[in-house]
Specification:
Elements lengths: L3 H24 L8 H7 L4
Length: 46
């Protein structure tokens, strides 16, 4: 039972870091052009 006093705050912190990382990626425009990089790789000159 004592382990819950450690695991619950750690899981809340983990969720916070995941949400912060997702917010950062959206804010920086990581999801703006989903098809562009795939097309760039396919049409790149070798």
């Amino acid at each position: 039972m004592d382990i819950l006093y450690l695991l619950v705050p750690l899981s809340v912190m983990l969720v916070f870091f995941i949400l912060a990382g997702l917010w950062w990626a959206v804010y920086r425009g990581q999801f703006e052009d989903l098809e562009g990089e795939g097309e760039r790789i396919l049409h790149a000159d070798s």
